[in-house]
Specification:
The chain is an alpha/beta fold and 255 residues long. The protein contains 12 helices and 8 strands. Helix 11 links the parallel strand 7 and strand 8.
Amino acid sequence: MNPTLRKPLIAGNWKMYKTVREAVETARELVQFTAAVNVDVMIAPPFTALAPVADVVKGTSIALGAQNLFWKNEGAYTGEISPVMLSDIGCQYAIIGHSERRQYFGDTDESVNAKIRAALEHQLIPVFCVGETETQREAKETFSVLDKQVTKGLEGFSSESLSRLLVIAYEPVWAIGTGKTATTDQVQEVHAFLRSLVEKRFDNLLAKSVRILYGGSVKPDNVTEIMNMPDVDGALVGGASLSAKVFNSIIHFHH
């Protein structure tokens, strides 16, 4: 990995876990652990904890992310949260199109595209999630599925509008919360394919600078191996990010 172009990003997706008190406590611990890290760190607590956690991480090396957003600034959209609200409380990132959102809540390539646009309009860095299911992998459809997700998800954007902002997260759906992890060869093959896809759709500059994270059962004992792949620029960590100690040992992987 070329460190001048792509600084590793270790992102923790807390999913639907933690009360406000628990979230603030974990964030406080993390702030102490990460005082002098040389990677970018982001945590995405549940919506109810975002504002209090924002106060804890303000001015530290930890950035705040949202787990989702809606693509309008305001309106009669009961239960939704807008990019304006997120940037207002200090979010810097937004996870978009996570496989769980696609699977349970009807996120489509089209709605993901609208959400990425909304995030960028409000200077939120989109963490754009793509990945194939077990059935798709077994049917040898991995590359065509990813091609469609990336092409439709990024349709209508220019290289300039995405430059230095876009983060892609590859999460093989069959490796999330299942304890199965893709082999490092599988991960590198897909990440290299995604980078070549960005180059084909946009240009070499964006392909070189876009950070591609791996998500799918990342743990302290496999993170170093995963991070040493040439096209892996970070990790989107689920369960292992809920404990400050465990997440900290992932953040301090061996370069």
